[in-house]
C-alpha cells in the first residue's frame, strides 16, 4: 500500500500535480531607505511581498499605530497610483480612496518598541497576474492586537497602478528616515 501511495505522489510531482508553492525570489534585510527587486514575471501567477519594517524616525512613528511604506512598479514616478482602504481600530471603522499619486501607500501596522526608539510592523502584499498587460490591483493586509488589550487593528488596502506593462521592478521606500532591523521578501507562485 505504501509503495502504491508513493508511486501516485511521484507521478503527480512529475506531472506538475499537487499544490502550487511559493518560491523565494529575493530578500533584503538590515538597515535601508528602500528595497528594490528586479523580477521576471513571465512564469508567475502571483507575487507576494512579506514586509517587516522598523522606522527610526520616531517623530513619524512614535505616536502612530499605523505607518505607511510606499511602493512603485517599474520605476514609474508618474501620477499613476491609487489606494483605497478599510480600517478597524477597536470599535471604530474608517476608509478612504485616493488617486493620482506618484506612489501607492502600504499600511504597516505595528507598535512602538518600548525603550528602543523605533517601531516595528508588518504587511503582506499580493500582486496577482504580474506578467499581464492589465492594470494592476495589488491587495495589502495587516492586522494585530493593540496595546496588549482587546482592541484590534486591521487594515485592508486595494492598491492601484494604471500601468499595463508586466511588473519587472518593485520598489518599497520610506516617506522619511530609514528602515532599521527590517526585512522585505518577494515570493512568486508559478502559473
Q: Strand share of the residues? A: over 45%
> Which CATH-level-2 architecture?
Sandwich
CATH C-level name = Mainly Beta
Radius of gyration, whole Å: 19 Å
Assign an overall shape: globular
Query: Unreliable runs, pLDDT <50, ≥5 residues?
Result: 1-15, 58-64
- The tally of structural domains comes to 1
Order of helices and strands: HEEEHEEEEEEEEE
Contiguous helical run count: 2
The chain-level structural class is mainly beta
Q: And the CATH topology?
A: Jelly Rolls
Overall mean confidence score, pLDDT: 77
Question: Which key features would you list for this structure?
Answer:
Jelly Rolls, single chain, mainly beta, globular, 12 strands, 191 residues, 2 helices
Which helices and strands, and how do they pair?
Elements: H1 2-14, E1 22-32, E2 34-38, E3 44-55, H2 58-61, E4 66-73, E5 81-89, E6 92-101, E7 104-112, E8 119-128, E9 139-145, E10 152-161, E11 169-173, E12 179-190
Antiparallel strand pairs: 1-12, 2-11, 3-8, 3-12, 4-7, 4-11, 5-6, 5-10, 7-8, 8-9, 9-10
What does this structure look like?
The protein has 191 residues and is mostly beta strands. It has one domain (23-190): Sandwich (Jelly Rolls). It contains two helices and twelve strands. It starts with a helix and ends with a strand. Mean pLDDT is 77; it is low at 1-15 and 58-64.
Q: Could you give a quick summary of the protein structure above?
A:
Helix content is 9%, strand content 57%.
Amino acid at each position: 500500500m505504501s509503495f502504491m501511495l508513493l508511486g501516485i505522489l511521484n507521478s503527480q510531482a512529475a506531472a506538475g500535480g499537487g499544490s502550487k508553492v511559493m518560491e523565494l525570489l529575493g530578500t533584503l534585510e538590515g538597515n535601508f531607505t528602500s528595497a528594490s527587486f528586479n523580477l521576471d514575471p513571465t512564469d508567475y501567477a502571483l507575487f507576494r511581498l512579506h514586509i517587516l519594517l522598523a522606522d527610526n524616525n520616531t517623530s513619524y512613528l512614535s505616536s502612530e499605530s499605523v505607518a505607511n511604506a510606499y511602493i512603485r512598479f517599474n520605476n514609474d514616478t508618474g501620477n499613476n497610483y491609487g489606494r483605497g482602504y478599510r480600517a478597524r481600530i477597536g470599535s471604530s471603522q474608517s476608509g478612504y480612496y485616493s488617486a493620482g499619486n506618484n506612489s501607492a501607500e502600504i499600511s504597516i501596522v505595528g507598535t512602538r518598541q518600548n525603550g528602543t526608539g523605533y517601531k516595528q510592523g508588518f504587511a503582506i502584499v499580493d500582486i496577482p497576474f504580474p506578467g499581464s498587460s492589465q492594470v494592476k490591483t495589488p491587495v495589502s493586509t495587516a492586522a494585530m492586537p493593540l496595546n496588549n488589550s482587546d482592541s484590534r487593528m486591521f487594515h485592508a488596502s486595494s492598491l492601484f497602478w494604471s500601468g499595463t506593462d508586466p511588473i519587472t521592478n518593485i520598489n518599497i521606500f520610506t516617506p522619511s528616515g530609514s528602515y532599521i532591523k527590517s526585512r522585505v521578501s518577494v515570493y512568486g507562485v508559478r502559473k
